[in-house]
Amino acid sequence: MTITINIGGYQGDQSVHTRAVNVLCQAVERDAGDAVKINFVQNIVSQGFKAADLLSKTESGELDGCYFSSSYLTQRIPELGLFDQHFVVPDRRHAYAVLDGALGKRLALELESRTGFTALGYWDNGLRHISSAQGPIRRPSDCQGLKIRTLSNEDHQRVFRALGFQPMSIDVRDLPQAVTSHKIDAQENPLTNIYNFGLHKTHKHITLTRHLLGVAIVLFNKEKVDSWPEDIQQVVKNAVIEATAAQRKFAEDDDTVCRKAIEADGCEIITLSDDERAEFVSVTKHEVAHTIANFDASWIELFNADLAGVPT
After folding, report:
1. 295 and 82 in contact (C-beta within 8 Å)?
2. Which stretch of DSSP H or E encloses residue 92?
3. Which end of the chain is more exposed for a tag (fewer CB within 10 A), N or C?
4. In this model, does residue 64 exceed pLDDT 90?
5. In the chain, at which residue ranges do the beta strands (DSSP E only) sit?
6. H/E stretch holding 259
7. Which of 105, 8, 91, 103 is nearest to 49 (CA)?
8. What is the pLDDT of residue 312?
9. What pLDDT score does 47 carry?
10. N- to C-terminal Cα separation, the chain
């Protein structure tokens, strides 16, 4: 009997996530042969759904798998908030060490025990930066009173309030319209989203704050995965590993490509000096501390150990 696996996404052809799911699908088809038929619904937003509907569709079993930002699951798995410590993780190498280390493994187990999901991988959701239609942002004083779109996550919103912004939660489906209509003055996203969603056409000033490396979890319906024969489960797990390596390379390469394209379209790219970025760190550090204040010490120790284990 052929097993059908349905995966959903919310982005277009050029997205690093879309390309990675294609790698995943090809790997499954290559290794499972006729035993598996795999379908990829590339962008449920084009069908009138919200991007966040991927979570409910996957957990209910309407879809078998998806990718989605870890920040949307922190109400159910608060410890995922360890990934949401703004201005703490210095670069991708350190972020990957946390994702692939003891902390990432423990979080996957917690997610499986508390939800209907199985977490099979962590993808690079991009180094997040701030774009603005109101002028360059170099210091927290430039943020005062600006309406900024953020993820639907209170920890994120507290950080941006501390900077002086007025945060608003808007689904990614509605983000381009919110930008072009000037419903918001600013937003924060990786360069790949700023360019591929066309946000830079209105937001001409992009500050490379590197305030967070977003994390997208590769999620599958737990009951569906458990129902597959062991050899098919292993094929899918191996395919996710292969796709994860490709996805992270896509994400890193895309930063360079998108930056050049954004600059070619006449936008201002602002690189903060160490002193300028330190102002953002100083203003937000108390909110970052608040994010992790209620976590058991063992969680924080895992995070710090994985971070410290990266060779200098």
Report:
1. yes
2. helix 92-100
3. C
4. yes
5. 3-8, 36-41, 65-69, 117-132, 147-150, 166-169, 186-189, 205-221, 268-271
6. helix 230-264
7. 8
8. 73
9. 94
10. 51
Measured between alpha carbons, how far is 247 from 234 in angstroms, rounded to an integer?
A: 20
- Rounded mean pLDDT of 70-93? 91
The first and second tokens of residue 284, run together, are 């937000």
String of DSSP letters for 56-83: HHHHHTSSSEEEEEGGGGTTTSGGGGGG
Q: Which two tokens stand for residue 30?
A: 């290559």
**What was the pLDDT predicted at 186?**
98
Quickly tell me which residue has 């060490």 as its tokens: 97
Residue 290 and residue 300 in contact, taking contact as beta carbons nearer than 8 Å? no
Question: CB under 8 Å to 265, separation ≥6 — which residues?
Answer: 200, 201
Report yes or no: 149 and 168 within 8 Å, Cβ to Cβ: yes
**Nearest to residue 153, comparing CAs of 126, 123, 188?**
188
Q: Which residue type occupies 1?
A: M
Q: What does residue 295 show for φ and ψ, rounded to 5 degrees?
A: -80, 145
The number of beta carbons lying within 10 Å of the beta carbon of residue 192 is 25
The DSSP secondary structure of 191-228, one letter per residue, reads HHHHHHTTGGGT--EEEEEEEEEEEEEEEEEHHHHHHS
**pTM metric for this prediction:** 0.86
3-state secondary structure of 121: strand
Per-residue confidence (pLDDT) for residue 1, from 0 to 100: 83
CA atoms within 13 A on the CB side of 171: 13
